Amino acid sequence: MKASNRLWRDRLQSSLPQPLAAEVEKFDNEVQLKKQGKIDDKIFAETRLRRGSYGQRYDNGQRHDGKETRKLRYPSDNTKGPGTLWDAPGMQRIKIPFGGLNAPQLEVLAELSEEYSDGIAHITTHQDFQLHFVHIEDTPTVMRRLAAVGITTREACGNTVRNVTGCPIAGVCRTEAFDVTPYAKHLTYFLLGHPDTQDFGRKFKISFSGCAEEACALAHLHDIGTVASVRDGKRGFTFYVGGGLGTVPQQAKLLCEFVPEEELLPLCQAICRVFARLGEKKNRNTARLKFVIQKLGLAEFQRLVTEERKILTPDPRWTEYLKDIPAWHEDPRRPGELLQISGARDIEFERWRQTNVYAQKQAGHVTVTITLPLGDITADQLRVVADIARRYIKETVRTTVEQNLVLRWVSEADLPALYADLKAARLAQAGAGTIVDVVSCPGTDTCKLGISSSRGLAAELRSRLLAKGYELDAAIRGLHIKISGCFNSCGQHHIADLGFYGVSRNKNGYTVPHFQLVLGGKWEENAGAYGLAIGAVPSKHIPETVDRITSRYLAERQGQENFHAYAKRIGKAALKAMIDDLTFVPAHETDPGIYVDWSDAREYTIGDIGIGECAGEIVTPIEFQLTACEREAFEAQLALESGDSAKAAGVAYQSMQNAAAALLDWRLIRHDGAPDGIVTAFRRAFYDTEQFFDPFVGGKFAQYYFAAHEHRHDAFDAEKAHRLVEEAQLFIEASHACYGRLSAEKIVAA
Asked: Which of 405-443 are b and which e, b meaning 16 or more Cβ less than 10 Å from the residue's Cβ?
């Protein structure tokens, strides 16, 4: 153990609350045992993940975001490559229940980011903080220092109840039913470490929204999504279950119209018990709650939860906190006073005020959003926010799912002074919650699953959209752009007006970074609709894609028509036609810039393999075939759009079958052309040999094809057809990737 870590342990251990001290001490011992080789890798992986410690991706000792290159704190560690956790630092996730923070916590986060990370803290789309490049040996000390200010990393990751999220303006929102904050807080600590939540097959997410119409906490994409409701003067919640994004997203289903507040904790406990008992444990690809509900049906799931609730042992914690709810409140530091402006107006201040200030339901007070491009904030900026939180408010700070910070209970009269303080710290950027506030996951910067540079693209789009002044354009500023580096939707691309997720295409010996364009999502109404991908576009063509679509929308919208309604009116075919020419990839010698990802000076290739004879073909037959499969998947989407679920399902399955056949034909593997013959040959040649397996999700996408084949004669409603279309697109993407990997191996071998 490092001397500095030993010093912090001795200093803090006796002062920490006993449960937290014991928990961190246990993990510290496990770290030392793992270092000595006395704990199995798989066991240690689960125990560290349950405490928020991830491995991460490395890239020549640097990470890229926007136009900056961020150096590692320990660059020498990267000479060993990604290796093990002992060779290179990882990522530490830090749970921030409902996003609530105070000044001492902000200051500790600043210290930790400087001392153990790269000086930058990152806010996630789940209201957490993340520190990158943290050594595993340092994590127990990081945890102790966080625990000293009331923060735990326990169950920040792993097969557990993750951070419970909540509306960042709960309690001050003008349209909420009531403040959901105390309920989110008590449920967080009730379920933290609870015996009924320790045997999940996958993660479990819960959110609290104050109203149904806004985005709030995105109730429809969580395993449990609650929306505040009042019936006959009594508080309660509308309960949704089984939501989730990931590879194939599903919207949550209504479990109960009204659950009285005293049933909140026991009902969540009952749902967790059912999930722990019936959820998949072996196949992680089908281990979320949504698959349990899909398998059982909602009615049967409701019955099981009701029965489970009846047999729960009564727990005084279910209701004892309710007696304090009427007294729950936040106090302002200063009385609410309206802003009086005299003399010349500051244009920059007014621009910021228009987009970053929300008038609370409490007269004279406002909530201020601090825009954090890419969700990043430096250590010095964290300290400034802590100082501001003491000066202007009573430390009522929260993170948001759009990767920003909000300051609640600011007296409106203090806005000019507050703005000046933020501006001095480079924290006064306008555009919060508008089209320029682009959300992005870490992508290829640090995530092992990243395919394309989501952060690089997000920074580029933000810069271009700001130059157009779109954050102030009433017609378009309400659009949401969200970007994920892969299909897993950590950037929440499925619920954006314009969503993108990273994919790649193999073109004559080169791997070209692309993004799939996702349209049809809806951010409002708590993630009211999920979009579908309509086509893959080279990464460098995405800004032009955004420009074309937004320009057409501005020119063609009818009255006050929002983008979601506009896209639905003109249809996917018209939208796809806008960008069809942008999907073309020119030859490398014609435009080498297309073969380089955003914020990366190096060529994005499968290796330094030269041109070779195989590059003589402009487009190989399999590329034609897989492109045709993409076209079929889009035709399935059009059928779904027109209401023909049966046709959508049939064409989606056909696209998967044709992609499988294309791979078989490319490898000269015989099959009889019949559905059973193709699936049998594909299973034998690509699945059993694991040649189709993705490095991170294994045979998951092949299983989509097998299931589609098995159920190809079933009846399909709109929801099932939507899911099959999504699965077909992912299977075709996986076919592209398989072709790219195998063709690269073939070239290298030659």
From this structure: bbbbbbbbbbbeebbebbeebebbbbbbbbbbbbbbbbb
Quick check: do 165-323 and 434-605 share a fold? yes
- In three-state secondary structure terms, 629 is helix
CA–CA distance, 484 with 749 (Å, rounded to integer): 33
**Sequence-separated (6 or more) residues with CB below 8 Å from residue 595:** 510, 512, 588, 603, 604, 605
Q: What integer pLDDT is reported at residue 552 of this predicted model?
A: 95
- Find residue 241's DSSP bridge partners: 224, 253
Per the CB < 8 A criterion, the answer to whether 532 and 634 are in contact is no
Residue with token string 């309690």: 171
- The pLDDT assigned to 65 comes to 40
Q: What is the pLDDT of residues 701-750, one digit of tens each?
A: 999 999 999 999 999 999 999 999 999 999 999 999 898 888 876 544 44
- What are the φ/ψ torsions at residue 18 (nearest 5 degrees)? -55, -45
* Fold topology of 347-424: Alpha-Beta Plaits (3.30.70)
Task: Answer whether 656's CB lies under 8 Å from 708's CB.
Answer: yes
CB 39 within 8 A of CB 33: yes
How are beta strands 129-134 and 90-94 bridged, if at all? antiparallel
The label of the residue with tokens 């005020």 reads: 353
Task: Please give the CATH number for the structural domain made up of 606-750.
Answer: 1.20.120.330
Q: Could you read off the pLDDT of 253-281 as tens digits, one per residue? A: 999 999 999 999 999 999 999 999 999 98
The CA-atom distances, in angstroms, between 536 and each of 152, 630, 662, 683, 703 are 41, 9, 19, 27, 23
Per 3-state DSSP, the chain is made up of helix, strand and coil in percentages (nearest 5) of 45, 15, 35
Cα 738–85–41 angle (5° rounding)? Answer: 80
* pTM, rounded to two decimals: 0.86
Cα gap 122→385, rounded to integer Å: 15
> What is the DSSP track for 475-543?
TTTT--EEEESSTT-TT-GGGSSEEEEEEEEEETTEEEEEEEEEE--B-HHHH-B--EEEEEEEGGGHH
| CA geometry: angle 438, 443, 449, nearest 5 deg | 145
To the question of domain 165-323 being in CATH 3.30.413.10, the answer is yes
Position 10 scores a pLDDT of 65
Q: Give pLDDT, residue 70.
A: 39
pLDDT of residue 87: 54
Q: Where are the beta strands (DSSP E) in 242-316?
A: 253-260
Q: How far apart are CA 208 and CA 223, in angstroms?
A: 12
Residues lower than pLDDT 70 in the chain: 1-15, 17, 57-88, 601-620, 745-750
Query: CA-to-CA distance for 741 and 735, rounded, in angstroms?
Result: 10
Rounded to an integer, what distance in angstroms lies between the CA atom of residue 654 and that of residue 632? 8
Q: Which CATH class is domain 434-605?
A: alpha beta
Q: What is the pLDDT of residue 610?
A: 31
The answer to whether 148 touches 39, Cβ cutoff 8 Å, is: no
First-last CA distance in the chain: 49
Rg, the chain, Cα only:
26
The residue extents of the domains of the chain are 3-147, 165-323, 347-424, 434-605, 606-750
